[in-house]
Amino acid sequence: MQGKVLAIIKSEDFIQLIRYGLIGILGLIVDFGIYSTLTLMTEMRVELANLISSSCGLINNFLWNSYANFKVHDHLIKRFVEYYIVGQITTIFTTICLFIFVSLLRQDKLLVKAISTIIATLIQFGINKAITFKKG
Q1: Which residue ranges does the record assign to the GtrA/DPMS transmembrane domain (predicted)?
Q2: pLDDT, tens digit, for every residue of 7-49?
């Protein structure tokens, strides 16, 4: 049993997931920093602020994942378009969550953003590993 756990921890998939999470934290700092600035210091609607801030986070994360995590440098424009589309699909998910829970149900905008972003990140990892950063 202990050998299987150690094998999982040492596996490339697990290491990439950990790196993806660390890069995601950096992206969250970018995303949340811009989102917070736009929503707390201006009168910008949360949905528009989310689209802008998540785009900035996506660009940041794509560059880090390409060079530091999955280490694929070929077809960068194609990979970026795929990554951005996947990211925007999950951005639509977080934006819908913000609209429902913040705009309609008056829940805390930072809490809703955080929870919906965590769910979106797990979805993104699976899709990006299988499609966007597939080697070969």
Answers
A1: 19-133
A2: 766 788 888 888 988 998 999 899 989 999 999 998 899 889 9
Going by C-alpha positions, the residue among 5, 2, 135, 15 that lies closest to residue 69 is: 15
pTM of this structure? 0.73
Determine contact, residues 135/27, Cβ cutoff 8 Å. no
Alpha helices by DSSP H, listed for 1-136, are 2-10, 12-40, 46-64, 76-98, 109-127
Q: Which residue has the tokens 């528009």?
A: 48
Interatomic CA distance for residues 135 and 89, integer angstroms: 23
**Which of 26, 131, 18 minimizes the C-alpha distance to 81?**
131
Computed on alpha carbons and rounded to an integer, the radius of gyration of the chain in Å comes to 16
**Cα dihedral 103, 109, 111, 117 in deg (nearest 10):** 80
Q: Residue 15 and residue 3: Cα distance in Å, rounded?
A: 17
